[in-house]
Structures are given as C-alpha cells and as structure tokens.
Amino acid sequence: MPRARDLGISIGTLAPGGLNAITDVAGVRVGHRTLVEGSEVRTGVTVVLPHEGDAWAEPVFAGAHRLNGNGELTGLAWIRESGMLHSPIGLTNTHSVGLVRDALVAYEASRRSGDFWSLPVVGETWDGVLNDVNGMHVKTEHVLAAIEAASDGPVQEGNVGGGTGMLCHGFKGGIGTASRVVEEVGGYVVGVLVQANHGSREQLRVDGYPVGRVIATSEVPSAGAPDEATGSIIGIVATDAPLIPTQCRRLAQRAGLGVARAGGLGENSSGDLFLCFALGNRGLPPNQRHDAAPLAVPLRMLANRWITPLFQAVVEATEEAILNALLAAETMSGRGGATAHRLQPDTLLAALALLGSAGTEGTRMV
C-alpha cells in the first residue's frame, strides 16, 4: 500500500528517517499478531519493545500525557511516579487489556527467578464495530507471538495487530507510524506509532486541507454516522535523545497536537493517551534490592533551549502516522456485516486537488 510520501504528500518540514517509522530509533522493535477469523473476529495485538535488551533489567526514562481519558493505558501510575518504563508496550482492543497485561507479566516472569513484580504498559482502543470485542479472542499465545515477531525493520501498518478492527475518521483505520530526524539538534531521531481509531469524517484534515468535507459518504460510505467520532487513539513516541522524564512527558503532550492537525478533537468519548520513552540515558539501574543499587547514576539531559525542534518532530510524525494508518488500511467487513472502507489514494489525491484549486472556504460533505 502507498504511504503518504509515496503520493507526494510531505507533512511538515523535517526529514523522515530511513524507514519513516518508529523503528528508525535504534533498538526499537515492533511485532504484530493479527486475528481475522470467520465473520466476527477482527482484532489482534501489537507489541513495541523499547530496545534490544531486557526492558526490566534496563529501564528507560518515560513520560505520559492524557488528551482525553475515556480509555486505558496501564502502568502509568508507576511511570509518573518513577519516570521510567520497565516493560514492553502492548496495544490491543478494549476488552483484551487485562489479558495482554497478564501475558506480559507471565513473559517477564518466565525469564527470571526469585521475587519479581511487573506493571506492564498496555493501551487499548475499541474495535467493536467490526470485531466481537466481548468474545475475548486475544490469548496469551498471541501476545507471545507478537513479541517473537518483533523486529527493527519496516513496520506493517493498517489492518494489523491491535489495529486490525479499528476505524479512523469514518474510514478504515489501524496502525500507522512515521519518524523525523532533527538535524538541528544533534541528528536525534523521533519516531511515533499510533493505533488510530478516532475522529469524524467531517473533521479529517490532510496537510491542512479539510479533505473529509469533500469526500462524500455517497462516494465512500462511513462505518458509522458521518459526523460521529468512532473512538480513541494511542500514540507511542520514541527518541534517542537524552531526555529526562519531565521532558518525555512534554514530548508525549505534543502528540496531541499532531492528532489535532489531522482533525482529532479529543472528544468526550475518546481515549487519547500518549507515552514517550527516551533511549538517550540507557544504563539506568533496574528495581534491585536497595543494597545492590548504585548510590548515584550519571545522566545527560538535552537543554530545554533545544527541545522545541523535538516537539515539532513529534507533531509532524504523529500527523503523518495517522495518515499512513488510513492509507495502509484495507476495506474490511466484520461483525454483523458492518463494513469500514479504506481511504483510497486516488480519492485522497482528488480531494486535495479540488481543495487546492478551489480553496477551502465553504467546503462541506454532501
């Protein structure tokens, strides 16, 4: 499937990394397990591994932000308290959060002996339009398969993993990713991965153009009411910059601006939750017995004077990741015969051409 840049759509001004994906941040790996069975099962799980080592034994600094809280991202209380991420990150459907969390605990426990505790991070969005969400179809073996499949190469997008049954701005949604290289600030890389299941058709914007207003539901039917926001978005931000937890939280906050630029409003029924982790201070001690822990740890911190370009990178990469999710997704039918239609590249380009030639004033869906 073509991505935004394959169509000549360049969001923002910063250059993407080689893969234009969260995996451009060295060490980050992503794996999916997709479940499409019969006419009712359209779901799965996605796992983001923060680096190639053991996340429990080698935590990294992290911070989180809530744009709107009708959703779940487990483990945030400890991240906010400690400022560190100690686990892989799971993404799935709303009613499978507990299972995925427990599976990540079991995965960690199987690799170590003695006393052990874990508070894994698992995010969700609701896929109940296309999927039998109450059927609890995601199992422990699917989580382990996603971990086993995780790689640092190109990231599958669209109808994969946790994004399998998701909708976005009235079209088929799912997993999307993008990255930026911030040459102005040491060449640090910022990558974003989203599970996009949010927004209304009317509000969708691409590179500032209100394309959702001119793509009529008579041309591309919506899985729900044309003006109804379908749900939530989870955004994972990774960077190799040397950030401390408060700076990670500030980057996570900027993901909400990328959502807004694409037309998301943080609606009352939406769970818009973002997590940022930074690899620039790898080597932090794990939660050891206190008599085994070092008294002090040397750290590096990017001066706040130079953090704004990283904010820009998050905003641009988030906006582009959402668009990539839309373009990669394929039309899917599921539970009860419901169908979510993809945003066809030709349809998008025609809408952009129309708006570019006619301007944006007075444009409305018909």
Question: How would you describe what is shown here?
Answer:
It contains six helices and 14 strands. It is 22% helix and 22% strand. Helix 2 crosses helix 3 and helix 4 packs across helix 5. It is an alpha+beta fold and 366 residues long. The chain has a single domain, classed as L-amino peptidase D-ALA esterase/amidase. The chain is globular.
Task: Compile the SSE list and pairings.
Layout: E1 29-37, E2 41-49, E3 60-69, H1 76-82, E4 84-85, E5 89-93, H2 97-109, E6 121-125, H3 140-149, E7 167-168, E8 171-172, E9 174-182, E10 188-196, E11 233-239, H4 245-261, E12 271-278, H5 308-328, E13 332-333, E14 339-340, H6 345-358
Parallel strand pairs: 5-6, 11-12
Antiparallel strand pairs: 1-2, 2-5, 3-4, 3-12, 7-8, 9-10, 10-11, 13-14
* Most strands sheet: 6 strands, mixed
CATH superfamily: L-amino peptidase D-ALA esterase/amidase
CATH class: Alpha Beta
Spans with pLDDT under 50 lasting ≥5 residues?
360-366
- Strand percentage lies at 15-25%
Indicate the structural class.
alpha+beta
CATH architecture: 4-Layer Sandwich
- Alpha carbon gap, first and last residue: 28 Å
Order of helices and strands: EEEHEEHEHEEEEEHEHEEH
Computed Rg = 20 Å
Percent range for helical residues?
Answer: 10-25%
Give the overall silhouette. globular
- Sheet with most strands: strand arrangement: 4-3-12-11-10-9
